[in-house]
Amino acid sequence: MDYRTQITSPTLLIDEKICRANIQKMAEKAELHQLELIPHWKTAQSKKIGEWAREYGIRKITASSIRQAAYLSNSGWELIHIAFPFNIREIPLLNKLAKTQPISVQIVNTATIQELANKLTSPVGFMIEIDAGYGRTGVHMSDFSKIDEILKIAATSEHLSFFGFYIHPGHTYYKPDKELIYQETRQALAMLKTKYESKHPNLVTRIGDTPGCSVATDFGDIDQMGPGNFVFYDLMQVELGSCKKSDIAVALAIPVVDIVPERNEILVHGGGVHLAKDHLIEADGKKNFGEIVILKEGGWEIPESRSFVKSISQEHGLIQASEDLLNQVQIGDLIGILPVHSCMTADAMGAYLSLTGEWIDHAEEKKFKV
Known about the structure:
Strand content: 25-35%
Distance between the termini: 19 Å
């Protein structure tokens, strides 16, 4: 069946072959560097795609919220780690999940670990998030007194187990010298491991960002890697040098609703509620909300002449179209958009249509079909 016959409104397509190739490549890189790959599932948010990942030896996974962890629980994962500073209002749900699913959480302060120590009724692991330069969240790498206090409080609970230290070097997204950032990250984690492994001999260290994990060649003695966006990649990752456009595994299929050839514009049904509003900046200062691909039976192709979405509103998208694109599309046709930020697009759409016409699940459980 031609998947295009199922599409009447904006629909997120997934190319299983490309997605599997991305997972396999990162799994092979992890094995090469003797790292355990524990991918962040904030991008895919899918049980089915998780089944694909397990075929490449992946046994543990990371979630960005307890809601996401609940969706993924009891579907074959040896451990689900919630890589977000834990919200103590969710302790009752954490207790419920931990009864049947091995789970761990992220700690950045003493108040949270104290609440967990007081209220946990099931075993839960935890990692301490470290700030080694990003500045978003985490215990500063040199704040040993806070780390010591967190560990001291945790030791009072029979339900808490310390797993190790986690760093998300998110500044690899906007600083060019990724190798330098990784050098600083390696040094921070090595220092912490040296300081604490005598009392905690089984502790592990983990990094979690796609740009660095994709391009770095030296991981030192880091134990685990947890990139997320690599499952799909996107145009932002292309700009950062993490991948090529041909590595992007998802495309938003959208209907053409109007064509204005004198302005080289195509109006499509596909806007902020479908793509989200992440954008890149063109050389001439224009915004780029996604690039056009040509949908074919069994997939899509990247055209030689480039067209992009130059503006969006809630439901509308306006394409700056090449002459080639104008000459081959008509009102009612479908075209595809490679997203700038696939995590946000996937979250907005909440479902995937495979190139064989199969619907694939997403934690948000939306399907943009009548």
